[in-house]
Amino acid sequence: MKKEQVETSIKELFRKTVQKDAKIHNAYLLVDSAKLGVHLNLAEGATGSAACAQQPYYIASVSKLITSVLTSILVEKEMISYEDPISRYLEPDLLHNLHLYKGKDYTSDIKIKHLLNHTSGLHDFLEDSPKQAKSFVDHIIDEPDRLWTAKEAIVWAKEHLEPHFPPGQGFHYSDTGYHLLGLIIEKITEKPYGEVLRAYIFEPLQMKHSYLAPSEPMEKSEYPLADLFISNINITPYNSLSFMHAGGGIISTNGDLLKFMKALVQHEIISEKSLSQMKRDWGKFFIGIDYGYGVMNFKTIPVLMPQKYNVWGNAGSTGTFMFYHPATDAFLIGGLNHFRYHRKGIRLMLKSIDKLLKCDVS
Q1: Which residues contact 113 (CB under 8 A, 6 or more apart)?
Q2: Which of the four pLDDT bands, split at 50, 70 and 90, describes residue 267?
Q3: Residue 287 pLDDT > 90
Q4: Which residues pair with 313 in a beta bridge?
Q5: Going edge to edge, which strands form the sheet with 250-252?
Q6: Helices (H), ranges, the chain
Q7: pLDDT tens-digit profile of 124-139?
Q8: Do residues 290 and 119 make contact, with C-beta atoms less than 8 angstroms apart?
Q9: What is the dihedral of CA 70, 28, 147, 219, to 10 degrees?
Q10: Most exposed: 64, 82, 238, 267, by fewest CB within 10 Å?
């Protein structure tokens, strides 16, 4: 199939994905492969004004890959070690009974690496369900004016949720853990997390439209922030979105995320050795998907996960995704902007790979 046909096929796939789902109000897809000569930067949907491919949007848990790369930068600078206990950096009050499992406090056993690959055993304040209280998601919706600090989200989790296993003895996805990472990074650098992101990643890579909400980008976009939805409720203006912090609070654009992923793949922001370590030390996320230091790695599982889908990157609960597909030298980036649409976002990414693999290379 010729390059032009492949591009048309991906455009049609994206358009149909958005149009057949009434809950997708705005969506974004970037596909870039120098090897195939393919470059698409697409937007579909309308939220007051037509969606635009240059529009900034919340990247949700795709932020975790950026948080992990930032941590790796600090490791390379010998400001921190993956083996460091988190108790070295965080105050006793926050750590008190943070990881109380079956009557034993394992908090002092949690290391930086456990937070990065979700093997700490800590709860996930966003997805875990409290036994006798409303969920954190309900708080977001019911209390739109409430401002959440990272510490407040962690304390809420400590008061309402239970850890799942001792550190290093399992896998449980944890936004709580990434909030702790953000606070540790602030402690080490003596700067707010958003400023650290800007100094170490956004400015060096000229990601001019990227920032940690609610701060400001280096260059204000001429396009409005894309609307974000939970249960078809537009929560974009909610102050309660302040809860996202290091686990998911970055706002960016397809173009900026492409700059980041290219720099990561080409070892321009961290070394090849550092990237390999991020991929190597992993927990088992799902069958066919390992989770390293902020890196989802799709590996071959006969029938369930064919080799053609071997990609690495990260994805978010709002249908966001940012992956690299080595076989086609392709970057696949985008978002559907609706909470709990992570499977649909990944499905769109994998179907786009199917299209790319049909492209004639000449």
Answers
A1: 82, 83, 119, 281, 293
A2: very high
A3: no
A4: 296, 323
A5: 57-58, 250-252, 211-212
A6: 3-19, 63-76, 92-95, 112-116, 136-142, 150-160, 175-189, 193-197, 245-248, 254-265, 272-280, 342-356
A7: 999 999 988 899 999 9
A8: no
A9: 70
A10: 267
Q: Which residues of 342-355 are buried (b: 16+ CB within 10 A; e: fewer)?
A: bebbbebbbebbeb
Pairing between β-strand 229-230 and β-strand 233-234 as defined by DSSP bridges: antiparallel
The whole-angstrom separation of Cα 271 and Cα 73 is 9
Angle at 246 between CA 244 and CA 252, to 5 degrees: 80
3-state DSSP assignment of residue 189: helix
| pLDDT over threshold 50, residue 48 | no
Q: Is the pLDDT of residue 47 over 60?
A: no
pTM across the whole model: 0.95
Would you give the DSSP letter of residue 53?
Answer: T
Which uninterrupted H or E stretch holds 105?
Answer: strand 104-105
- Specify whether the CB–CB gap between 124 and 175 falls below 8 A: yes
User: Tokens for 302?
Assistant: 């006969």
What pLDDT is recorded for position 291?
A: 95
Tokens of 112: 């930086």
Cβ burial, residue 263 (10 Å; 0-12/13-18/19+): middle
Handedness of CA 296, 300, 301, 304 (dihedral sign): positive
Residues in Cβ contact with 12 at an 8 Å cutoff, skipping those fewer than 6 apart: none
Mean pLDDT of the chain: 94
pLDDT per residue over 181-216, tens digit each? 999 999 999 999 999 999 999 999 999 999 999 888
Rounded to an integer, what distance in angstroms lies between the CA atom of residue 133 and that of residue 63?
Answer: 28
Per-residue model confidence (pLDDT) at position 231 = 87
